[in-house]
């Protein structure tokens, strides 16, 4: 099999039939017919379930597993995940509406994100979800709304920790940040929550996203529990919630290795035991996005044209950065590396040539694969981009050049 995809954890769940990539027993060419078009994203329930089961088997049983909807807000997928996990995290009124359409109890839904507008806070207040406060100003606006609506908000404080998660793909805490309340400001905010007699639940401490370094994640765990212990002393009521955020990474590029979940889980067992001893009623939440859905998704595009420019083969496809910005390299701000990519109908063929897989947009940034070794492909063939279940379609500039939207299937 194509060495760029053979090692992927999802290949233990997907299968290959007659050389063709198959999800849940359905070959990709048939999925294209069901979708009624290319390009499309397909998300495999079995891979999601496999990932949830692995987490349940490895993490301490007390851990509450939440899904962060922003990773992939496809409604059917959210419904499926809601049945598999213990809660949902949302970051906007739109996502809140999606979460409230599931069977998840409002007490197991939290809303985070800077700049929550009054209408979003009001909706959160009315529905009884936990509001993760991001600033002292937001607390005061919530106080006014609570007063007006005659309701007591359930709140947690999102903390901008005084440590950073090193080697993280994206840092969400440490230093000056728009996210969360600085550790130093937390005592004053906690005091104010006490004055307001809000239902105080606890803390969210989220350090960073897309981390594949198990050691760094363990160091972050240490920091999170140490900080939680410190902050709990200042709380206006017994703390009942520690939300550790998300951030577990998945392998995208040639040298990436999956993280060591066993070691991560083993370390977490110790922290959870100690924490539950001091706070018997605390609920410890791990709120994952990418790790739950990233590897369950593929993006499938069709070759429209095959051309050779000065010796370089280009496969021009009907999909690209307007559906899958991350796979194209996020607007060229970083050194571009290829997501795992394959010819969907020739998974077991050896590579015949190095090709550039590009999209239809009028920008040189619209690239899905640069000089990737693939079997010979011709117009009409399907190309598949793996690891595409998180931060794909909903995180892409779909209006750019006004091509049709990608379809989405949950299989
Ligand atoms: C994005 C986000 C997550 C999920 O992050 P992943 O890296 O996808 O696991 C969790 N919590 C909050 C508050 C977020 O903003």
From TrEMBL:
Sample GO molecular function, one term: diaminopimelate decarboxylase activity
Keyword DNA-binding applies: no
Key words of the record: Pyridoxal phosphate
Residues that bear N6-(pyridoxal phosphate)lysine: 70
Active site: 362 (proton donor)
Signal peptide: none
Superkingdom classification of source: Bacteria
Domain Orn/DAP/Arg decarboxylase 2 N-terminal positions: 47-293
Stored InterPro entries: Ala_racemase/Decarboxylase_C, DCO2ase_PEP1, De-COase2_CS, De-COase2_N, Orn/DAP/Arg_de-COase, Orn_de-COase, PLP-binding_barrel
GO terms for biological process, alphabetical: lysine biosynthetic process via diaminopimelate; polyamine biosynthetic process
Needed co-factor(s): pyridoxal 5'-phosphate
Keyword hit for Ribonucleoprotein: no
PANTHER family the UniProt entry points to: DIAMINOPIMELATE DECARBOXYLASE, GROUP IV DECARBOXYLASE
Protein name: Orn/DAP/Arg decarboxylase 2
Record organism: Halorhodospira halophila (strain DSM 244 / SL1)
